[in-house]
Design goal:
Elements: E1 12-18, E2 23-30, H1 32-39, H2 45-62, E3 71-78, E4 83-91, E5 94-101, H3 103-107, H4 115-119, E6 122-129, E7 136-142, H5 148-159, E8 164-172, E9 178-187, H6 205-214, H7 219-222, H8 229-237, E10 244-250, E11 252-253, H9 259-267, H10 271-277, E12 283-288, E13 293-298, H11 299-306
Parallel strand pairs: 5-11
Antiparallel strand pairs: 1-2, 1-10, 2-9, 3-4, 3-6, 4-5, 6-7, 8-9, 12-13
The structure holds zinc ion.
Zinc ion (ZN) binds near residues 255, 257, 288 and 290.
Amino acid sequence: MRDTVATPDLDRAIGFTIPARHARGRLVRLGPVVDQILAAHAYPPAIERLLGEALTLTALLGSTLKDAGGQLTMQAQTERGIVKLLVCDYQGGALRGYVQFDADRLATLGANPSLFAMFNQGYLAITFDQATTGERYQGIVPLEGESFSDAAEQYFVQSEQIPTLIRVGTRRDADGKLIAGGLFLQHLPDGEEGGERLHSRDDHPEWEHVSTLGGTMGSDELADPELTLETLIWRLFNEEREVRALSSVALSRGCRCDTAHIRQVLAKFPVEEREAMADDSGLITVDCAFCARGFPVSLTELASEEL
Ligand SMILES: [Zn+2]
């Protein structure tokens, strides 16, 4: 039997907890949002898949922020790798991301390059910014493992000592568009609100049970838009006494590079510096790497802004 839905379940994150097991989870599925982000660029398939996976992780972790105005940023970087820089961020359900890479060297790798082949020795930095308190927390781990999600899992295990399971799956639909899905599970003995997070014990039977079940989730299920996220939760945990569904978050593609914002930033520069930034026709062009486009602002417009 197959649980199908009339409308594909896409561009959404949902949270849940399993109180008796002291576990929390998130599920994410991305479709048109990834497509819109990729449409600004002309990335080869391997980079599209990598960014799709990174965006899914960003949505999984970003949707755990309790602060609605908070931001989560994932940045992967290398010195000698083919992929030089990957940046994704999440704020209030809005996602964006881009990748800088050496196209010629990437072309020598074939269709399915390994993480190591792309990044060589890279690092993954995950930054949590809380809007209300202004607190910022950043952790950095080596980019190791089979996939980006392995590295993110290590981030929690190594730098936060929280038992964590992360799975991400991607696939192409009939039109060749990328669909990505992800599962995030964590053992939080003190509940969602946290408290003392360090684990003094090494054995966590409740967590082993939850992570064993979570580990059965296939990447084909995660990236199947015909299976609702609720169906996936049911498939994994239907024998649990209680699974509490948390909020569902609609995901969108969003950037903060609008012309009004850019004008505000430029207006803060002294007149001489603005003139030095402008071209012969009196235009300052500010590039947005996320959108892969330039925003021209004229010096006369800026001058009138100050009045
Ligand atoms: Zn932008």
